[in-house]
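so my prof wants the structure for this chain in the tokens format not the other one, which i didnt know existed until like an hour ago. anyway here's the sequence
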Amino acid sequence: MTTINISNSSIKQIKLDGKQIDYRDSKLKGFMLRVQPSGYMSYACEYKRGRKITLGQVGSITPAQARDMAIKILSDAAHGIDPKAKRGHAKPKTLEDFINKDYHDWVLTNRKSGLKTISRIKRCFFPTLGNKPLTEINHFAIEQWRVKRLKNNVSKETVNRDIATFKAAISKAYEWKIIDHHPLKDFKLLKSDRNIMIRYLSKEEEIRLRTALDTREKNIRQQRDSGNEWREDREYNLLPDLKNLYFVDYLKPMVIISLNTGIRQGELFGLTWEMVNFDKKLLILSGNITKSGKSRHIPLNNEAYENLYNWYLQNQNISYELVSNNKYVFSSSTNNTKFTSVKKSWANLLNLANITEFRWHDMRHHFASKLVMAGVDLNTVRELLGHSEISMTLRYAHLAPEHKAEAVAKLNII
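here's what i got, hopefully its the right format
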């Protein structure tokens, strides 16, 4: 720790070196100046070993005013008066307290991905920073966290997403005046290759996926028939016959629609029959289920239309109420609750199709990739996907190399 005469002139001469530095005053023991890596400076008073009180920000109060405050605090401490108790000073709020007590309800109310946001912060940051006071979270702490994540082979893109989510939460703490400055305002994300390879299905993989869907349907029907034979022999009530149904359950129509529309999983789960226009062969996604908050129109091709209409007829025959009164197109139970996950059935399907490293979200990439390779212009692809900026759609540009080849060919000398 460096000792200086804390004054306006000495403060002006301080040079930042990317580290937090505490300067002790050479004239008044206990009077301190704390300099953050971001350049934020504040006065503090250490009235007892390891116990400090922040006096104010440099620029908001003068060194002389801060010194006078420190003298009063040191005097109280010398007379057995706890300065923090006297000031009604609250214990600094920890990250865990802030997220659980302040941020949790707000983000769930105001962000569609609120649950995922809270889950990401708790999973990624609580183990190392959860018990840390918000006032102690700074560039250095996050840089240490980032280095550890990268050493554990977490991709730059994932680390950037984690930090962006975390910074948004800290921004709210600053906005709500829980902290008096934003410690991560200037914290820069890692540079990464934005033109990463897009995962989409090869022709052979798509055939295997579709075959697996049909095989799964066949297997479930056979299992139901076998089970009902066993029940009949024992005079038990039979389960509904699946022979005459278009689908044994939700998975096949979900996958077919995703492959042919590029709809996000959250949008698919939130889709209601009111958003389906069979006459115009159109999905009209309302803003309350889209990521951007804006409505989006997605045309249905023949395969998507036929599967969705058959799913509609099947559910109408089972229960008319299921397709009326703005009910979900896909519900996870008879009481029409919204799906939250299909991880198990999706994983089993991929295993049956012998397809690896292909997420549900990759069906969206598959949809976009097929459009680009078919010659559809990127702006149309952007509109269908609901991207707010064309830069997000440019990831698929490399799938149309003939366009670049045609442009370069114009330089040929004839």
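also thought this was worth mentioning. Strands lie at 2-4, 21-25, 31-35, 41-48, 51-57, 276-277, 282-285, 296-299.
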